């Protein structure tokens, strides 16, 4: 049985003090997490150490990006080793905002995934179509290509160490979440693609999340879908009561 993962992507927000406060409030709101629900918060790089200090061992720390090289002359980049050193166990890879604004390609996403696996850092790999692709009915081909290119060099035996987030770009930050049944259909497609790349058993072990305008009111409808294993939460993860509310809704299911 796959566990549920709720990950908060704080994006480029908060001062040191605000991040510390949010981590503390999340900690106080989420005592007694059941074993089948994992929670991760992903602050900006500059807040990782401070937030790590506030978090109990039951809540995981994640970064929002990573570079594929181990060390050296790569100005501005951050390695897996450095993330592990400040307490990260997760990292978001290939978020659509990085693909769009930083021109991150599928090749770069693949390199980052391989670096994470080599270092036992768990990547949450984001895939999803934009509005135009959706309207042209290109969702399937876009997502299939992203999944194939992200994982084509992953060794059999390693794919279960990866989580995937299906995030339709038009739903991110728009307040307009996907229909749960539509998200479920894409999540099923993603698992089919994984079955083509790996064994059926391995593909079944990969957690696939939904992301895009998730909030305490709609989270249950996503997690109740058979194949959706949690959520990547942006805006709602910046308010402790909403993020805690999302996790508590999942606990009721
Ligand atoms: P959102 O962001 O919840 O604000 O839509 C999700 C994401 O970008 O991961």
Search tags:
binds 2-phosphoglycolic acid; 11 helices; alpha/beta; globular; TIM Barrel; 253 residues
Ligands, ions, cofactors: 2-phosphoglycolic acid
Strand order, biggest sheet? 1-2-3-4-5-6-7-8
Question: Based on the structure given, which CATH architecture is correct?
Answer: Alpha-Beta Barrel
Largest sheet: 8 strands, parallel, barrel
Q: What share of residues is helical?
A: 40-55%
Q: Would you list the SSEs in sequence order as H and E?
A: EHEHEHEHHEHHEHHEHEH
Report strand %: 15-25%
Number of helices: 11
CATH class: Alpha Beta
Q: Given the helix and strand composition, which structural class is it? A: alpha/beta
Distance between the termini: 15 Å
CATH topology: TIM Barrel
Total domains: 1
Q: Explain this structure to me?
A:
It is a single chain. The chain has an eight-stranded parallel barrel with strand order 1-2-3-4-5-6-7-8, surrounded by five helices. The chain starts with a strand and ends with a helix. Helices cover 42% and strands 16% of the residues. By secondary structure, it is α/β, with parallel strands linked by helices. Helix 1 packs parallel to helix 2, helix 1 packs parallel to helix 11 and helix 5 crosses helix 7. It has one domain: TIM Barrel (Alpha-Beta Barrel), CATH 3.20.20.70. Strand 2, helix 2 and strand 3 form a beta-alpha-beta unit. It contains eleven helices and eight strands. The site of 2-phosphoglycolic acid has 13 residues, from strand 8.
